[in-house]
Amino acid sequence: MKKSILLLLVFFYLLPLRAQDMLWGLQFKSGIATQDFHEVSGRLVVPELAVFTNYQVPNLPFEVGVSLGFGLYGTQLEKRNDLYVGFNDELRLRRNNNTLSMAGVFRFFPQVYGKVFPFMEAQIGALYGYTRFKIREDAFSEPIELERDMGNWTRLSQLGGGVMIPLGSEINANLELRLMYQNTGRLEYLTKGDVNYVPDPDGQVNGTFEYSPRRSTFNMIQPSIGLSFYFD
Fold first, then answer.
1. How far is Cα 136 from Cα 145, in angstroms, rounded to an integer?
2. Are 172 and 156 in contact (CB under 8 A)?
3. Are 179 and 223 in contact (CB under 8 A)?
4. Is 5 helix (H, G, I), strand (E, B) or coil?
5. What is the spatial distance between Cα 129 and Cα 127, in angstroms, rounded to a whole number?
6. How many structural domains is the chain composed of?
7. Which residue range(s) make up the domain with 192?
8. Which pLDDT score is estimated for 204?
9. 126, pLDDT greater than 90
10. Other residues' Cβ atoms within 10 Å of the Cβ of residue 193
11. How far is CA 193 from CA 78, 94, 173, 213, in A?
């Protein structure tokens, strides 16, 4: 899986690129859990920010590119005074559940002429789901402890489409509206409430974390809105 992503990146950067053929953009996604992801973890909504760059193939209605996304599917804050033996001050234990996605992008523009440009899009790559925690004295202090609870890779594919709406020749930018369906392999992951801290009953050593991981795909419907720019 990692080799396929590397090959996509190498292929993309070996193309004879020209600056005016490059599209750069940001997309704000809101993933809604479906199928076994919904059955196992409930109706999760996963906000995600993705950056992408596409190469417009000259004289053809195609774009190829790469996309990198970061999502958050849950966060939990606990305030505890029993995390360390001999230290009774209240500390903040923050745990975030994140996703990192990397994919190659293929876009096809049908020969439709007007004020908007519809397109179909497919992506293939990998998704990394991981949970990490930070222990701090307050919200702005340096972490006393920063660790990763769990992390797993799986394959990722997306299929859907959208419209590109030019915002005028002066800024050379587009508003993009998309609707994609994401399909992944199964992986183990943690959601809010799946980690329990158990202090040592004798108070002789630091407590331990108990994990109750879930296992499913990360299948989602992903509406999104974004901005893209061509650079001359």
1. 7
2. no
3. yes
4. helix
5. 6
6. 1
7. 2-230
8. 82
9. yes
10. 10
11. 11, 12, 42, 10
Residue linked to tokens 């899009």: 121
- Report the C-alpha gap between 118 and 162 in whole angstroms: 6
Residue pair 88/71 in contact (Cβ under 8 Å)? The answer is: no
Residue 129 falls in which region: left (phi positive, over 0), alpha (psi -120 to 50) or beta: beta
CA gap 27, 227 in Å, rounded? 7
Looking at the predicted structure, is the pLDDT value of residue 174 above 70? yes
Buried b / exposed e over 58-85, threshold 16 CB at 10 Å, is eeeeebbbbbebebebbebeeeeebbbe
How far apart (Å, rounded) are the C-alpha atoms in residues 158 and 190? 23
If you write DSSP's letter for every residue of 102-124 in order, what string do you get? Answer: EEEEEEE--S--SSSEEEEEEEE
- The model's confidence at residue 6, banded by pLDDT at 50, 70 and 90, is low
C-alpha closest to that of 150 among 187, 198, 205, 193: 187
Share of the chain above pLDDT 70, in %: 91
The answer to whether 225 and 176 are in contact (CB under 8 A) is: yes
Q: What share of the chain is helix, strand, coil (3-state, %, to 5)?
A: 10, 60, 30
Closest by CA position to 26, among listed 198, 226, 215: 226
CATH number, position 69: 2.40.160
